[in-house]
Amino acid sequence: LNIKVDATADASLFIKLDVDDFNDGNTTADETDLLEECYFTWKNVRGSNFTTMLGKKEMPFGMDTDYLITDPYTHNSGTGSYLGKTYPNGGGVNNAHTQVPQTTFSHPGEIDNVFAGQVNYAFKDLALLEAAVFQNNERDLQGNRYGMHEDNSEDSLLFNSYAMRANLMPIEGLKLQLSFANQNMSEYKDMTQSIAEGDDDTYAISTGFDYKMNKVPLRFYGEYIHGWNQLHCDEIDTDTLQLGTVWGVTEKIDLVLDFEWLNTNNDYMANEIDEDFYRIALAAWYKTDYGVKFGAEYLHEWFDSDNNWDDADADVFSFRTAYSF
Question: Which CA distances in Å does 101 have to 105, 121, 180, 274?
Fold first, then answer.
């Protein structure tokens, strides 16, 4: 549920309630995820091209392209896999195949539900630069969320975490993006120190594109994300890739083809663990004239390890109905 209250032409309050995130696979509902966004926006500050935002919101990192029913790997650390076992910071435990014994499925993705201050600068319709500082709300290895504000004394209003993104629109229909994020939490470092060289910070860089053709009802998109120091351990790196296309068959029917790859490389174990997850999905959406949308999806996911683990695969059919008003 999105609510926008305009105080003036340039000042507004935005509120987003997300029941889907209220219980995203954890054993108990997380009330901090229900109010997903609540922030103030001031556009054209003193007649300039600057916009400022303050409050709880999503950070300017990555593209978070999602045309499927199942969340993509690029969305976050946990909800996009039917084979990967995740730590709770990934948004839930997905262990349909418990024989897949990877150490972690954690990887960079969307950063949301954080208190932040953000500044944007727009140059005509050609470029948008975004920069934000935020209070990190990651969960630790035991699933504890240190929270924000006074609940997280180490990541206070000094904002030790930050994100920035550059968006370029060189031609009509084409968007290019490059972004970087740093998440800081020394409590996490203290927990990983016993098994590896812990680090206060975890880093990620993203580059991607979105191209909507003018004369043909086709859209192409792609994103690559590299992450360092996952789980605040300097021995864990990840690579994530997403490529896809959307075909508008008619004004009411869309077909989506999406391919994704995720690699996790863990050097801190006695034997280096290198794992690959792949998935390909085909989805169809039908939009009615009454705000109702129906979706059907087939997804095939497979797991491959360079170690002695058994490979695994899964086939999943999903259906969804959505109503917009």
Answer: 10, 45, 30, 12
Q: What average pLDDT does range 105-116 have in this prediction?
A: 84
12: tokens are 């507004």
Q: Which two tokens stand for residue 248?
A: 């508008």
- Count of alpha carbons within 13 angstroms of residue 220, beta-carbon side: 7
| Cβ-proximal residues to 144 (8 Å cutoff; 6+ apart), any chain | none
Cα 218 to its chain centre, rounded Å, is 24
3-class SS at 160? Answer: coil
Helix (H, G, I), strand (E, B) or coil at 29: coil
Closest CA to 59 of 142, 179, 230: 179
- Cβ(193)–Cβ(48) below 8 Å: no
Cβ atoms of residues 91 and 76 within 8 Å? yes
Per-residue pLDDT tens digits for 4-28: 898 888 999 999 887 665 555 444 4
In the prediction, which pLDDT does 32 show? 57
The number of C-alpha atoms within 13 Å of 256 and in the hemisphere containing its C-beta is 23
CA dihedral 28, 192, 267, 160 (to 10 degrees): 90
Q: How many CA atoms lie within 13 A of 309 on its CB side?
A: 23
Any idea how long the chain is?
325
Alpha helices, DSSP H, located in 115-200: 186-192
Q: Give pLDDT, residue 27.
A: 46
